[in-house]
Amino acid sequence: VLEPRNTDNLVASGVFLVVFSAITFVLAAHAVAGKVLTTAGGIPMFAFGLPVAAIAVGAFCAAYFVKMRRQARASAAWPFAPGKITRSEVARDVLAVKEESTGRIRYDDKYRPVIQFVYRVSGRDYFGSGVTGGWTSLHGSPERAEAVVAAYPAGKEISIYYVPEQPRTAVLERGKAAGGLTPLVVGGVFSLVGVAMLWVFASIG
């Protein structure tokens, strides 16, 4: 590896471990029983994997939100290093959205600023991306993404703020949490859906 003892993806790894361990357990139980196991109400046991997965995703989003908030507060004391913007442009993403009323799928254009930079700490070059690190916000109009890009044109020399103990983690703007409340909202939706599904299953079975 390039970065020893890197634990950035520890929470995500934990979520995948829980979800796939649950799936493995249920499939193994079906194999041992020789049939699809169901509850008293006739609900297949593997169906419970959906709400478990939804709750796990919700927990991951909540943990990510807390992490970004802590990083934003801590960044106020981070030192800075000289750096340069190496890439600055607006990317367009096409998202498929299903309309609940008609069932039709429409395609929405979303725009995101792509900012990449390079900086040097203690004689070593590091590369980073984004403005606040982590989550990248999607915008409904290109103008909002272009405003971010305009503030950081390619070739601009700028101060990069980094974690003293972990220089590869850096941001362009201190005191801001990546994505705002988006991770918390997304996590809340997944968690509510998971809890609602478990409540329905418990009522039936």
Helices, strands, pairings?
Elements: H1 10-33, H2 49-74, E1 80-98, E2 105-121, E3 124-129, H3 142-151, E4 157-163, E5 166-171, H4 182-204
Antiparallel strand pairs: 1-2, 1-4, 2-3, 4-5
Notes on the structure:
The chain is α+β, with helices and mostly antiparallel strands and 205 residues long. The chain has 4 helices and 5 strands. Strands 3-2-1-4-5 form a 5-stranded antiparallel beta sheet. Helix 1 (10-33) runs antiparallel to helix 2 and helix 2 (49-74) packs antiparallel against helix 4 (182-204). The longest helix has 26 residues, at 49-74. The protein is elongated, with a radius of gyration of 22 Å.
Features:
205 residues, alpha+beta, five-stranded antiparallel beta sheet
Shape, per Cα inertia axes: elongated
Based on CA atoms alone, the radius of gyration comes out at 22 Å
The major beta sheet can be summarized as:
5 strands, antiparallel
Order of helices and strands: HHEEEHEEH
Produce a short descriptive summary.
This protein is of the alpha+beta class. It contains four helices and five strands.
